[in-house]
């Protein structure tokens, strides 16, 4: 899990997610992503892409708390607001799933806060 340790480039997380998705014939939703967590739900670092963004030069810092929430699809690259302000959809016949973990960044392996006890 070297992609999520202090000193690593933040974009390595997206690289790992995208690599795994493509290996299984899937796509990554690009217009929503992971984020930092603190006293509020969405904090810095802001948008953490679930795909490799070579322009993202940010570095993970020790003690940061972030989510890793890949949005993986059977063919879509973006989602759309359904109009109710909450539900996100893709085109008909496309399946999309999301899962989320919360991590504390350390010098070594991150602490995964959402693993079952």
Quick tags:
117 residues; alpha+beta; Creatine Amidinohydrolase; three-stranded antiparallel β-sheet
Write a structural description.
The model has no long low-confidence stretch (mean pLDDT 93). Helix content is 11%, strand content 26%. The chain has 1 helix and 10 strands, in the order αββββββββββ. The chain has one domain: Alpha-Beta Complex (Creatine Amidinohydrolase). The strands form 4 sheets. A 3-stranded antiparallel sheet has the order 1-5-8, covered by helices on one side. Strands 4-9-10 form a 3-stranded antiparallel sheet, with no helix packed on it. It has one helix spanning 11-23; strands at 27-28, 34-36, 43-48, 65-68, 71-73, 80-81, 88-89, 96-98, 101-104, 111-112. A hairpin with a 6-residue loop joins β6 (80-81) and β7 (88-89). The radius of gyration is 14 Å and the shape is globular. The chain is α+β, with helices and mostly antiparallel strands and 117 residues long.
């Amino acid at each position: 899990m070297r992609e999520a340790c202090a000193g690593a480039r933040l974009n390595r997380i997206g690289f790992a997610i995208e690599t795994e998705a493509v290996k299984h014939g899937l796509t990554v939703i690009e217009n929503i992503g992971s984020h930092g967590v603190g006293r509020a739900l969405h904090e810095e670092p802001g948008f953490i892409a679930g795909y490799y963004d070579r322009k993202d030069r940010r570095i993970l810092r020790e003690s940061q708390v972030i989510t890793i929430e890949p949005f993986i699809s059977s063919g879509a690259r973006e989602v759309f607001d359904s109009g109710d302000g909450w539900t996100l959809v893709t085109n008909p016949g496309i399946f999309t799933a999301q899962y989320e973990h919360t991590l504390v960044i350390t010098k070594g392996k991150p602490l995964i806060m959402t693993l079952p006890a």
